[in-house]
Design brief:
Largest sheet of chain A: 3 strands, antiparallel
Order of helices and strands of chain A: HHHHEHEEH
Mean pLDDT of chain A: 84
Distance between the termini of chain B: 51 Å
Low-confidence stretches of chain A: 1-6, 16-23
Radius of gyration of chain B: 24 Å
Distance between the termini of chain A: 40 Å
Oligomer: heterodimer
Largest interface: A-B, 30 and 27 residues
Structural class of chain B: mainly alpha
Shape of chain A: globular
Strand content of chain B: under 5%
């Protein structure tokens, strides 16, 4: 938090200019602001059950939340591939189902036959944001849990090392790369 | 263990339970039925939720003193916090990438939830204290994620924010002195006035509670030395 007298104006200016120092242009900031405001407003509408008397407080809250969001996260420059995103969603749902069945089958087996391990996997995704996306997704899938991420190095806890986990991770990584339109080395 | 204590313990438990139950059943009916009184006066309070009506209107004096106590507690922390102003500007050590990206995403949602709790207080569970707590948690999360520096000596804007809730409340409480008594809010404006008080309280409580955490890292750093 800057503590000069003109700090407030600097803050407003900062929001307007963060794109210049960042990746997109002024239009990208405006677009991000409108999009995030719309999403937050929809969330507010859902939270308050669509009551019309909630909007005076809601307008101020949504505006504050949108400004905070812009300050914390500059608009992304990469545009998602729609087709690859749909493909990724299908892949994610299928993997979730498969993982769930696998873990459930293990749980109901009378004799527990686990070989838990922590795998060390070197990720190829170039940007940190994409790696975090992959890591979060792996944590959501049953049977795998991301323990640590340092730079490119992922530590992944698995319930059974005999599963072809690394291959699955590579597969997911390639799909995420296609979704974010980046090339893997 | 012999069998005597083993039987004695359950027997004593049952006797105690019976004694407590008897005592509860013999309680005289309360001579003042507070819930009914609150319900009867709810229409004049400006809100429709009894807890908020009690906290901010019927027993507004309590709440006014509570925020004053919290502010005083923070002043105590400030008085003992480290003097050097550079120490406070540092970020949390070793911010983690995953935590940081989550905080960037979650913090605006926490602000939204705080606003929702503030609004909800007028007719369902919620209110300024809960909203302020969520705001404070948001600030602590941002600090832990390395996105917000620990606080240095408070500059003017921060000081104004810390005191705003108490001052707004005090002003609204004292204004009726010109024609009546302290905290005698005109029923016609009670609704908007409640909202104004609650908004000020939310901001100040968020800052005070966050301050209790964000001024303490200096202490932790000194303990490590």
């Amino acid at each position: 938090m800057p503590d000069r007298p003109l700090a407030r104006w600097r803050k407003i200016f900062l929001i307007a200019s963060c794109a210049r120092h960042g990746r997109g242009g002024g239009a990208a900031v405006l677009r991000a602001f409108i999009l995030r405001t719309a999403l937050l407003a929809a969330l507010w509408w859902a939270l308050t059950g669509g009551r019309p008397d909630a909007w005076p407080v809601g307008a101020a809250t949504v505006a504050l939340a949108a400004i905070l969001s812009l300050r914390l996260q500059a608009p992304a420059s990469s545009r998602l591939s729609v087709a690859a995103s749909a493909g990724f969603l299908a892949f994610f749902l299928a993997r979730s189902l498969k993982g769930g069945v696998q873990v459930a089958a293990m749980a109901i087996r009378p004799r527990l036959d686990l070989q838990p391990a922590i795998l060390d996997i070197s990720l190829r995704l170039p940007q940190e944001a994409e790696r975090i996306f992959l890591v979060s997704m792996l944590s959501l899938l049953p049977g795998t849990l991301s323990v640590g991420l340092e730079g490119q190095r992922l530590q992944l806890h698995v319930l059974d090392r005999r599963w072809p986990i690394e291959q699955d991770v590579r597969n997911a990584e390639a799909r995420i790369a296609r979704m974010f339109r980046v090339k893997l080395p | 263990m012999s069998s005597l204590p083993r039987m004695l313990v359950p027997a004593l438990c049952i006797a105690l339970a019976a004694a407590l139950a008897t005592a509860m059943l013999q309680l005289p009916a309360p001579s003042v039925r507070l819930a009914e009184q609150v319900g009867a006066q709810l229409g004049h309070s400006g809100v429709t939720h009894p807890v908020t009506a009690v906290l901010l209107n019927f027993r507004g004096y309590d709440t006014l003193l509570e925020i004053a106590v919290l502010l005083t507690a923070l002043l105590g922390v400030l008085a003992t916090a480290a003097e050097e102003s550079t120490a406070g500007r540092r970020l949390a050590e070793l911010p983690q990438a995953v935590l940081q990206s989550m905080a960037r995403f979650v913090a605006p949602l926490m602000v939204l939830v705080a606003g929702y709790l503030l609004w909800a207080g007028s007719h369902q569970p919620g209110g300024a204290f809960q909203a302020g707590a969520v705001l404070a948690a948001c600030a602590v999360l941002l600090y832990l994620a390395g996105l917000l520096p620990a606080w240095a000596a408070p500059e003017r804007r921060l000081r104004a924010g810390l005191a705003a809730g108490f001052l707004v409340f005090l002003t609204i409480a004292a204004a009726p002195l010109s024609y009546g008594s302290l905290l005698q809010d005109p029923a016609a404006f009670a609704g908007p006035l409640m909202l104004l008080i609650e908004a000020g309280l939310t901001l100040s409580l968020g800052l005070v509670l966050a301050g209790l955490f964000l001024w303490l890292p200096d202490e932790n750093a000194e303990a490590k030395k």
